[in-house]
Amino acid sequence: MTWAAATLWEDELMIQSTNFPLSKYCLKAYGSWDKLEEQVKALNLDGLEVIADPDDLADDIPLSMVAGYHMTFFADWVDFWREDRNALRRKYRSEAEIKEAYRGTRPEDLLRHFREDLALARRLKAPYLVFHVSDVSLEEGYTYRWLHSDQEVLDASIELINELLKDTEPTFDFLLENQWWPGFRFTDPAQTEYLLTRINYPRTALLLDTGHLMNTNWKIKNQWQGIRYILEMIEKHGELSKSIYGLHFHQSVSGKYCRKNVGKVPEDFPLAWLQEFARIYPHIQQIDRHRPWTDEECVRIVERVQPKYLTHELSGNVYRGKVSAIRSQMRVLQFGRFLGLDKLTDEESVERRKRMNTKMEPTGHWFLDRYVYGIC
Fold first, then answer.
1. What is the DSSP letter of 23?
2. Distance between CA atoms of residues 245 and 152, nearest Å
3. For the chain: N or C, fewer Cβ within 10 A?
4. 22 and 114 in a common domain
5. How far apart are alpha carbons 274 and 184 in whole angstroms?
6. Strands, DSSP E only, in 10-109?
7. Which helix (H) or strand (E) holds 243?
8. 326 and 196 within one domain
9. Are residue 27 and residue 55 in the same domain, yes or no?
């Protein structure tokens, strides 16, 4: 099933999907899996990259709809994994809150959750799994004053992943996703190589989240600068970039917000754990925006990476917002390739941007003005 590969990259096999939770609540909005599959086909997608909602699980999804599987994650987990009880007591008000946050009391409980999640992914025959390599507490999400180094998070993640995948038959690609929190950020090739070479599972590779990478650079002011930065980091990684098997494709220009709002906690911080989690969520959404690309040069990223898997990981409500965002981004990719922007060098991109910034007399014809003469 390769509808999108046939419409966008006819000469290549690229599985395209969008993200969707395995949740009865979310499924109810569509009525049934059959109706949701109709929507997926109408969008020219190959399926869904799913993530399980353990409290409202809808795991009866047809296997034909599963394009990939995003593993469960705990944003702040390293101290729990290391059994640093002093650190945990500083973050949570009681042992009951700790148990609620991690659904258990010991590292073995955390590993059990991941094993159950892995078992579901394998039952659904997902061709790839995505794993977050990061750690951030609620307080750090406000302050950006990190409690753990990248190296500490990498080492803890390697330990957990190797234990999780020990003796697992290599029937799927296991993709490590970058974040902008401590851990794997895709900004340091030495750290990327360290991570890749110490995981024992033979089909380990990378999933590059384009918006997350943009979040690491507050100097980015627009999508074009973000595209250049992403391509710069890919080139910086040299041969390691061949390990990028997947893309979470979206854009996030949030440096202005971060400069204004990061560095302080709310006056009444912390509230009870669940209350604090609910309060910080809109703040994180302002940092990590998951908006569709509208600059056609974003096609250069896809052309450079040549991913096996591309997920349109976009925000929006179940109906119009999400569907509109996916259609918009896919059109931008298609038109970018139609214009030949996928083949642009960086120097050619700079020259094109100069022309776009030069005042020209409009012709009155929308196509010529926007796409031939570059008046936007």
1. B
2. 25
3. C
4. yes
5. 26
6. 15-22, 47-52, 66-70
7. none
8. yes
9. yes
- Residue 218 corresponds to which tokens in the numbers above? 């507050």
Two tokens at 232?
């710069």
170 cis-preceded (ω within 30 degrees of 0):
no
Among residues 6, 308, 283, 281, which one has the least CA distance to residue 174? Answer: 308
What distance in Å separates the CA atoms of residue 350 and residue 353, rounded to the nearest whole number? 5
- In this prediction, residue 5 has a pLDDT band, given cuts at 50, 70 and 90, of very low
CATH of residue 289: 3.20.20.150
Which range of residues forms the domain containing residue 199? 3-344
Does residue 14 sit in the same domain as residue 130? Answer: yes
The per-residue pLDDT for range 290-335, each reduced to its tens digit, is 999 999 999 999 999 999 999 999 997 656 689 999 999 999 999 9
Question: CA-to-CA distance for 74 and 158, rounded, in angstroms?
Answer: 15
pLDDT tens-digit map of 56-92: 999 999 999 999 999 999 999 999 999 999 999 999 9
For the chain, give the longest Cα–Cα distance. 69
Query: What residue type is 167 in one-letter code?
Result: D
Global pTM? 0.93
Closest CA relative to residue 148, chosen from 157, 139, 138, 136: 136
CA 71 to chain centre: 12
